């Protein structure tokens, strides 16, 4: 058996609260988002895991979630690698728009396609497929080798960058992954086999909180 990979979606951000498309924009966590990150940290502490390294995006909401977790599990100075390869999907022209306003401008059906299709990007932005195209190589070259060498690795990132990873790890098809929501602040613990397939998966919290 090789190491352990833990994926955590950041807590609620200020723009999540305002129902805005966020993407590569950089709002902070709300008070609720901080609480969600703390709850995830407590679940990890109770689980008893200590990490060898952490990865996060270069966006504040994921960086803060990562640090809150590390602080609460008594590893505040753990080596943490920040890389934009783990950033949220780029929503292009939709970024900063209220989702209801976007529906009014482009129509309910078109906005739904941009949000939920696998390979149709919004204007100037990325589809989930595009997001995976930058997340997967980074995972394969930077994260996976550490897990396979026996390390325990934390990845604090975003709904779509993590969905790209879950799609591969859980061997999900396009239709399955486009319907999947990841709860904020809820750790997913993967133990991998030596051939990089999943030996076991545990969710440390309530996935019904996904939105």
From TrEMBL:
It comes from Flavimaribacter sediminis. NCBIfam families: pgm_1 (TIGR01258), PRK01295.1 (NF002339). SMART domains: PGAM. The active site is at residues 10, 88. This is 2,3-bisphosphoglycerate-dependent phosphoglycerate mutase. One of its GO terms (biological process) is glycolytic process. InterPro entries: His_Pase_superF_clade-1, His_PPase_superfam, PG/BPGM_mutase_AS, Phosphogly_mut1. The gene is gpmA. PANTHER family: PHOSPHOGLYCERATE MUTASE. Pathway: Carbohydrate degradation; glycolysis; pyruvate from D-glyceraldehyde 3-phosphate: step 3/5. Its EC number is 5.4.2.11.
């Amino acid at each position: 058996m090789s190491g352990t990979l833990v994926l955590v979606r950041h807590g609620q951000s200020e723009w999540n609260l305002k129902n805005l498309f966020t993407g590569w924009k950089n709002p902070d966590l709300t008070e609720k988002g901080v609480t969600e990150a703390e709850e995830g940290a407590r679940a990890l502490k109770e689980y008893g895991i200590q990490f060898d390294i952490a990865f996060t995006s270069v966006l504040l909401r994921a960086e803060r979630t990562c640090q809150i977790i590390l602080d609460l599990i008594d590893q505040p100075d753990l080596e943490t690698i920040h890389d934009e390869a783990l950033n949220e999907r780029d929503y292009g022209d939709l970024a900063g728009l209220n989702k209801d306003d976007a529906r009014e401008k482009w129509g309910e059906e078109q906005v739904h396609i941009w949000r939920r299709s696998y390979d149709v990007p919004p204007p100037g932005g990325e589809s989930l497929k595009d997001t995976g195209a930058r997340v997967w190589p980074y995972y394969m070259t930077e994260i996976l080798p550490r897990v396979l060498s026996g390390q325990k690795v934390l990845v604090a990132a975003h709904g779509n960058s993590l969905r790209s990873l879950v799609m591969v790890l859980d061997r999900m098809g396009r239709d399955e992954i486009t319907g999947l929501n990841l709860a904020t602040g809820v750790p997913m613990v993967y133990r991998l086999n030596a051939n990089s397939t999943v030996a076991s998966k545990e969710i440390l919290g309530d996935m019904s909180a996904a939105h």
